[in-house]
Amino acid sequence: DTGVSQDPRHKITKRGQNVTFRCDPISEHNRLYWYRQTLGQGPEFLTYFQNEAQLEKSRLLSDRFSAERPKGSFSTLEIQRTEQGDSAMYLCASSLEAGMNTEAFFGQGTRLTVV
Amino acid sequence: QKEVEQNSGPLSVPEGAIASLNCTYSDRVSQSFFWYRQYSGKSPELIMSIYSNGDKEDGRFTAQLNKASQYVSLLIRDSQPSDSATYLCASSQGGYQKVTFGIGTKLQVIP
Question: Does B49 contact A108 at a Cβ distance shorter than 8 Å?
Answer without folding.
Answer: no
